[in-house]
Amino acid sequence: MTLEVEFQAADIAAFQAQAHARLSQTPPTRLHPWPYPRWIAHRGAGKLAPENTLAAFRLGAAYGYRAFECDVKLSADGVPFLLHDADLDRTTSGHGLAAQRSWAELSQLDAGAWHSRAFAGEPPMTLAAVARFAQANACVMNLEIKPTPGTALDTGRVVAAAAATLWATATVAPLLSSFQPLALLGALETAPHLPRALLLDTAWPGALDVATSLGCAAVVCNHRILNEALLAALRSRGLRVLCYTVNEPEDVRRVAGLGVDGIITDAVDRHAPAEH
Fold first, then answer.
1. What is the pLDDT of residue 276?
2. Which of 20, 84, 193, 276 does the annotation list as catalytic?
3. How far apart are CA 138 and CA 67, in angstroms?
4. 81, 125 in Cβ contact below 8 A?
5. DSSP labels for 165-228?
6. Are residues 159 and 80 in contact, defined by beta-carbon separation less than 8 angstroms?
7. Contact yes or no for 193/164 (Cβ under 8 A)
8. 20 C-beta neighbours (distance < 10 Å), count
9. 276 in active site
10. What's the average model confidence in pLDDT over 10-39?
11. Using one digit for the tens of pLDDT, what is the confidence trace for 180-225?
12. Closest listed residue to residue 183, CA positions, set 213, 150, 209, 222
């Protein structure tokens, strides 16, 4: 069962009322013109380097990318750091739930050896380190809030508060995205001025209403579900449209032809940021 389906089964109307109440205290974030490049490197450099590490961001930048997507969750002691999965096993030398480890413990793990010997010893990365890299290299970020199950609201609050501080003087604020509406509600409560985006793997009933109630600036959808009808529905709500994870040339041509605002890709070595 996906996180989206779990939310779909909840009382969407009640959630919308809660989100509207919060949104009424601040206007929706509308970005004119759209400040993010069309091409966005997935988790740093897609699959060419260990995802969500400094090595990946450096490699993506070497290919000319100036916009990056990454996954952010919380350590046991509330430090925002980069990791996609709830557990540590796939992409680090650790085991078990990441949320049960302090940052002091997490920082000692190897987050590179799983990928290849060339990256052995690459450490996990904090959100603060991402902010330093991005601003030092004039890059912009899409921060996907990736909460450990059951912590969506609190994770959204903490990540948004940290992002607001870390990017306080940046020309372009990070785009905060999540599959979890509750995470975006937490972000709205804590840092309403930061732009938000709802992630969609499926076009579940009520998704567009939820995005609107959260004052989202964009929807980021699986490229396989995007068609002219969905694009028109999103545009009618004043939403920008981004797609993930677009790697194959025929898929790039299709979504670019539809006129999407962002293309998130693993294939940083095959698609130049100046394409389309």
1. 72
2. 84
3. 9
4. yes
5. HHTTT-SSPPEEEES-HHHHHHHHHH-TTS-EEEEESS--TTHHHHHHHTT-SEEEEEGGG--H
6. yes
7. yes
8. 13
9. no
10. 83
11. 999 999 999 999 999 999 999 999 989 999 999 999 999 999 999 9
12. 150
Residue among 42, 115, 223, 271 flagged as catalytic: 42
Is 84 an annotated catalytic residue? yes
Measure the CA–CA gap between 33 and 119, rounded to whole angstroms: 38
CA distance 239 to 231: 9
Structure tokens at 182: 């509750």
Spatial separation of the C-alpha atoms in residues 161 and 146, rounded to whole Å: 15
- Alpha-carbon distance of 121 to 108, in angstroms, equals 9
Rg (CA), the chain: 18
CA distance 36 to 140: 7
Q: Which residue has the tokens 């009424």?
A: 24
Host H or E run for residue 24: none
DSSP letter string, 101-160: S-HHHHTTS-SSTTT-GGGTTPPP-BHHHHHHHHHHTT-EEEEEE-PPTT-HHHHHHHHH
Q: Which domains does the chain have, with CATH numbers?
A: 3-265 (3.20.20.190)
User: 223 to each of 132, 257, 270, how far by Cα in Å?
Assistant: 30, 12, 18
| Three-state SS annotation for 77-109 | CCCEEECCCCECCCCCCCCCEHHHCCHHHHCCC
Q: Please indicate, yes or no, whether the overall pTM of this predicted structure exceeds 0.90.
A: yes
Q: What is the mean pLDDT of the chain?
A: 94
